[in-house]
TrEMBL record:
Residue span, Pre-SET domain: 479-572
Stated name of the protein: Histone-lysine N-methyltransferase SUVR4
Segments forming domain SET: 575-709
Main localization category: nucleus
Metal-binding found in the keyword field: yes
GO cellular component terms listed in the entry, alphabetical order: chromosome; nucleus
Region called Disordered, residue ranges: 124-143, 150-184
InterPro entries reported in the protein's UniProt record: Pre-SET_dom, SET_dom, SET_dom_sf, SUVR4/1/2, WIYLD_dom_sf, WIYLD_domain
Length: 750
């Protein structure tokens, strides 16, 4: 049975990751229909006249011509006949304007009624969708309130608080906003129209024209709107009729949900499967736009197929390579939508659509919400359909490995079953990518912590982030564009001896990585903060800290842009990862869902920045509570100080607040990740980012691990012990061979 978890972190605020089916209308969590999403991302050019297209687009939203006409006229005037603005983002401006127009009219009506008190009428029934006080919490976890100095209030005092963001936009909406930000810059007019529409404080009332007549019969709908702070303007792009639809599965298209990277994805696209062959309990829908039709369907076993049929005038004389097509569209997109960087990938986008489709058409028991009587589903006139296609099972077998991790498990008898626990995105939209969590074996509760994508300062830690502290030698203010393209490395390469650590492809240079891997020298403090914390009156001698190479990335005082090749860690996670329950007794772990090349950035270790003294207090407390802690010491530079002030000896504690790195388990010696200190916004090395890079090529579904640098023989360490189950032939935990372990719980100093 699949359980979609509606609550991930502890605290009163929850996000509902539930699955909703809105009477045949499929929407993603931000309220966009797949249709909208698809058009938005693909920028499919309408073929007919602009006006007809605009009417048609609005018609799919159940907005009739009469309402569209005056608004369109007005917009054409305002934009001086420039259709680009009106058509942008699937007529968003037009939609907004229609909506605003309607709101204005309603407001007028209200005003009129107020000045005509005699007119006695029943109050109109309205469905409130605004961020009501008690709903505001349902979007994200409680975050500590940020003080004016950038610090967060102590953890204890913040647990009951609501998210401190002034804007009520949900974290989930943030990702959506990122997509559209490029559009905003294209026109001031557009931007003002957008600003008025996307402002979260101006949440509308559901318009009857937008809501299916029987929406009241769908209790989940209201809940869904509340949970996602859905803007009614984005609702119900298309109600999908299933009866007599032309839904079908194109079995020649390898499972997109399984992210084939073979590059042959569409080659056999002329082969199709009639839905009734495979759709016993699957879902399908057909989304019709001007000149374009999308069929999307899932099989009972969880594979999703997506098909776009577009009546283009020119017939292709030969079938081009699918990679070439994807590349061309990607390039077009990068250009026209100013989408930045390598993270944008059409394949990933298609995969996301399939994943969301599956999620939204499956109930909590893993059964499809949409039933298609096979007799009703025919596709005789499809240009790409054949009578006897291969069954969907064949395709799944080849991609089996990945789909297991993503959606379901394949049992010994060949049957698939859904994982017991599945959380779609533990980051709740705070990272560039979703990170799911699965428990394929049991129904454990998801781990309790607050997801934060960036470090936050707890209380006493001194982190000197000030532009004034960055001297000209520590930045490259005269650079522009991409520093890696410059023939002479700029000042930011100084830390790495005049050569950048990254290649143009954004991965670590072979030499730099191998130097980091082979570096195993220790440096010793004269007065070690760790020993001081253990015994202040009579501290023992420093046990040593690994000497580590720093990377220095360009930052705000540099003249280059965000796409500069020397800004990798600060751009965040870009690859697909998943938290999963390990079988070997290590608890939760992190695995990659895609092949990773050697030297690629995975994620940084994020947590609360605490002083060594504060950490010590926490450790004492957690010993009492018998709770595991997740601290990492930022000790890469301790050896260079004669006496390190307690407020400068910093740690990252991811026990209560952390990111995905808190799930990376330890492996002795031959781990596939290496942690490298990265200097971004501070020049002294008391505070830095701890970034994980792959030490070798890592295959999809491999668990990610790093060597915590534990001394399994050190009895004096204050943190609770664990018995190492890393499975490495080089395991340092002697207790594996019989004796009891006294090893330490979490990554601390090396
Ligand atoms: C940073 S956390 C890693 C995530 C953790 N497994 C969880 O479930 O949240 C460190 C903890 O994971 C467990 N752990 C990590 N590596 C392990 C290993 N090689 N063998 C056994 N337990 C391990 C220990 O309980 C340790 O205290």
């Amino acid at each position: 049975m699949r359980t979609y978890v509606s609550e991930f972190a502890f605290g009163p605020d929850v996000v509902n990751d539930g699955v909703y089916k809105l009477d045949g209308c499929l929407e993603d969590r931000s309220g966009q229909s797949l249709y909208n999403l698809f058009f938005k991302h693909f920028g499919v050019k309408m073929k007919k006249e602009n006006v007809v297209n605009a009417f048609n687009a609005m018609k799919t939203l159940n907005i009739d011509r009469d309402k569209v006409k005056p608004v369109l006229k007005h917009l054409l005037k305002v934009f001086e006949g420039n259709w680009e603005f009106i058509e942008a983002e699937n007529y968003r401006v037009l939609l907004d304007a229609i909506f605003d127009d309607k709101e204005d009219k309603e407001a007028d009506l209200k005003r009129k009624k107020m000045v005509e008190p005699d007119v006695c009428e029943r109050p109109q029934k309205k469905v409130q969708m605004g961020p009501e006080e008690d709903e505001a919490s349902s979007i994200g976890d409680v975050l500590p309130s940020t003080l004016s100095n950038g610090r967060v209030e102590p953890y204890k005092t913040n647990l009951g608080n609501k998210r401190a963001e002034p804007d009520s936009c949900s974290a989930m909406n943030k990702r959506k906003e990122q997509h559209s930000s490029a559009m905003i810059s294209t026109s001031e007019k557009l931007s003002s129209a957008r600003a008025s529409s996307s402002s979260c404080s101006k949440l509308p009332i559901v318009e009857s024209g937008f809501v299916p007549a029987d929406s009241e019969k769908v209790p989940a709908l209201d809940h869904f709107r509340k949970a996602s702070r859905l803007d009614a303007r984005q609702l119900h792009i298309s109600s999908v009729p299933f009866a007599g639809s032309t839904s079908r599965i194109h079995s020649g298209i390898p499972d997109l949900a399984e992210g084939s990277s073979s590059g042959n994805t569409f080659r056999k696209s002329s082969q199709c499967v009639d839905v009734d062959n495979v759709m016993e309990c699957g879902s399908a829908c057909s989304l019709q736009g001007s000149g374009c039709k999308f069929d999307i369907a899932s099989s009972p076993t969880g594979a999703v197929k997506l098909c776009c049929v577009s009546a283009l005038k020119k017939g292709a004389s030969h079938a081009p390579d699918i990679d070439a097509i994807l590349k061309a569209v990607e390039e077009k997109f990068l250009r026209s939508h100013k989408i930045v960087g390598p993270p944008f990938s059409l394949k990933k986008l298609l995969k996301e659509i399939c994943k969301d489709f599956l999620k939204m058409t499956t109930d909590s028991t893993g059964r499809s919400l949409v039933r298609i009587p096979s007799s009703e589903v025919t596709s005789p006139e499809s240009p790409c359909c054949r009578k006897k296609p291969p069954t969907i099972k064949n395709i799944e077998v080849s991609n089996q490995k990945k789909s297991e991790a993503e959606t379901s498990l394949i049992m010994e008898d060949g049957m698939k079953r859904q994982p017991h626990l599945y959380v779609d995105d533990i980051t709740k939209g705070q990272e560039n990518v979703k990170i799911s969590l699965v428990d394929e074996h049991g129904s454990r509760n998801p781990p309790k912590f607050f997801y934060i994508p960036k470090n936050i300062i707890y209380q006493k830690a001194i982190v000197n982030i000030a532009l004034a502290r960055i001297s000209d030698e520590d930045c490259c203010s005269s650079c522009s564009g991409n520093c890696l393209s410059s023939p002479v490395p700029c000042a930011c390469a100084r830390t790495t001896h005049g050569e950048f650590a990254y290649t143009q492809q954004g991965i670590l240079k072979e030499k730099f990585l191998s130097d980091c891997i082979s570096e195993n020298r220790l440096v010793y403090c004269q007065d070690c903060p760790i020993e001081r914390a253990k015994n202040e009156t009579k501290p023992e001698k420093c046990k040593g800290h690994s000497l580590r190479r720093f990377i220095k990335e360009c930052w705000s005082k540099c003249g280059c842009n965000m796409q500069c090749g020397n800004r990798v860690v600060q751009r965040g996670i870009t690859r697909q990862f998943q938290v999963f329950w390990t079988n070997e007794g290590k608890g939760w772990g992190l695995r990659t869902l895609e092949d990773l090349p050697k030297g690629i950035f995975v994620c940084e270790y994020v947590g609360e920045v605490v002083t060594n003294t504060e950490l010590d207090e926490r450790n004492k407390q957690s010993r009492v509570n018998q709770r595991h802690t997740y601290p990492v010491q930022l000790d890469a530079d301790w050896g260079s100080e004669s006496i390190l002030d307690d407020d400068y000896a910093l740690c990252l504690d991811a026990t209560n607040y952390g990111n995905v790195a808190r799930f990376i388990n330890h492996r002795c010696c031959d781990a596939n990740l290496l942690e490298i200190p990265v200097e971004v916004e501070t020049v002294d090395h008391h505070y830095y980012h701890l970034a994980f890079f792959t030490t070798r090529e890592v295959k999809a579904l491999e668990e990610l691990s790093w060597d915590y640098g534990l001394d399994f023989d050190d009895d004096s360490h204050p943190i609770k012990a664990f018995r190492c189950r890393c499975g490495s032939p080089l395991c340092r935990d002697k207790s594996r061979k019989g004796s009891r372990s006294k090893a330490r719980a979490a990554p601390s100093s090396r």
